[in-house]
Amino acid sequence: QVLCRYQHIWNIDLRFRPAFLGGIMQATGNKPPAMLPKRAEYMLKDLKRMAKYYQVPVQISENDFQRILGTSNLGAMRFITAIDMTQPQYLEPLSREFWMHFWSQREDISQPENILAVAKQAGLSSELAQKLLEMISSPAVKNRLKETTAEAIKYGAFGMPAVVAHFNGEPHLFFGSDRLELLGSVIGE
């Protein structure tokens, strides 16, 4: 959300790339920070501070960590991948709606009926949404998501959010939403 705000101020070409967090964590041997009690305690406070600072409607409590860890986002990421492959103009609004439904409205985005509701909220027709829902089990969509996940790992991603800035011919990885000032500094903004 914040990068979307900055894209015109910083004159950046912002491109969303769907990646599967579970695949990244498995490939890198990383563990969710909420699995560490003191880190989870700090993260809860930090997320609330960040939400207030950036004016992004994150609704989270200590009980949400189990919800977050127990909800698969694979179907949603495949759905987003399918839209990227067929109607990329919807990638940003669809990504935003999935984020809002999961983090702000605490909805289960793993269920097909909720995926369709998110798609409708993002402006997709019910016909297109149904077509995309059918595509999420196709080899083409699965392979594309595997490719973008592998690409994220190649750039050094070990969790999400991960931002890769290509500047002066070099990729620069930034992890976390609290590194935006460093990203700005690297690109001269």
TrEMBL record:
<dbReference type="Pfam" id="PF01323">
    <property type="entry name" value="DSBA"/>
</dbReference>
<dbReference type="InterPro" id="IPR051924">
    <property type="entry name" value="GST_Kappa/NadH"/>
</dbReference>
<protein>
    <recommendedName>
        <fullName>Glutathione S-transferase kappa 1</fullName>
        <ecNumber>2.5.1.18</ecNumber>
    </recommendedName>
</protein>
<dbReference type="GO" id="GO:0005739">
    <property type="term" value="C:mitochondrion"/>
</dbReference>
<keyword id="KW-0808">Transferase</keyword>
<dbReference type="InterPro" id="IPR014440">
    <property type="entry name" value="HCCAis_GSTk"/>
</dbReference>
<dbReference type="InterPro" id="IPR044088">
    <property type="entry name" value="GSTK"/>
</dbReference>
<dbReference type="GO" id="GO:0004602">
    <property type="term" value="F:glutathione peroxidase activity"/>
</dbReference>
<dbReference type="GO" id="GO:0004364">
    <property type="term" value="F:glutathione transferase activity"/>
</dbReference>
<comment type="similarity">
    <text>Belongs to the GST superfamily. Kappa family.</text>
</comment>
<dbReference type="GO" id="GO:0006749">
    <property type="term" value="P:glutathione metabolic process"/>
</dbReference>
<dbReference type="GO" id="GO:0005777">
    <property type="term" value="C:peroxisome"/>
</dbReference>
<dbReference type="InterPro" id="IPR036249">
    <property type="entry name" value="Thioredoxin-like_sf"/>
</dbReference>
<dbReference type="InterPro" id="IPR001853">
    <property type="entry name" value="DSBA-like_thioredoxin_dom"/>
</dbReference>
<feature type="domain" description="DSBA-like thioredoxin">
    <location>
        <begin position="1"/>
        <end position="186"/>
    </location>
</feature>
